[in-house]
Description:
Layout: H1 3-25, H2 32-39, H3 43-49, H4 53-63, H5 76-90, H6 95-105, H7 107-113, H8 117-133, H9 143-163, H10 169-180, H11 187-190, H12 199-206
Helix pairs in contact: 1-6, 4-6, 5-8, 5-10, 5-12, 8-9, 9-10
Pfam families: TetR_N
Keywords: DNA-binding, Transcription, Transcription regulation
Protein name: ScbR family autoregulator-binding transcription factor
Amino acid sequence: xxxxxxxxxxxxxxxxxxxxxxxxxxxxxxxxxxxxxxxxxxxxxxxxxxxxxxxxxxxxxxxxxxxxxxxxxxxxxxxxxxxxxxxxxxxxxxxxxxxxxxxxxxxxxxxxxxxxxxxxxxxxxxxxxxxxxxxxxxxxxxxxxxxxxxxxxxxxxxxxxxxxxxxxxxxxxxxxxxxxxxxxxxxxxxxxxxxxxxxxxxxxxxx
Length: 207
């Protein structure tokens, strides 16, 4: 393995370890000393990649600022559903994504770094606007309002699941979608939408 490849792999190891600690302990209680112990790197080795805990947090947020695009579908509303299902599938499996939610609800971290809620909400709104333009949404639906609701639900469902675990997170997202979709989708479109949580694993492999 070349030096550059080792550096990329080490950087990823550091980011994932820091993300796990932010998830487990919160921003304030996570320390560089604890991260060095977890990664078994030297202090110099860690500082070669990240000069501070603040830089680590910013790097994690930057890595997850844009949600990975979903595969194109005949219905734009299905793409919006797929985005929600994929997030539910990835949150417990991707430490950086999980840490982004944790940092975004941590008052101190939020004051320092802001959140990624605007980017995530914009991604949902873009798909919903495209669905509206294609006649897939009921006439009363405001894409910005629905996109904001989905982002808030992502965070709330994730945090509640951590406190009161109750099965697969993606299944909880699917239940949420099944409750929301009859209020926003035209009947002919609603009948064609697939909200199965099992869909998410196949989508993840395809992206």
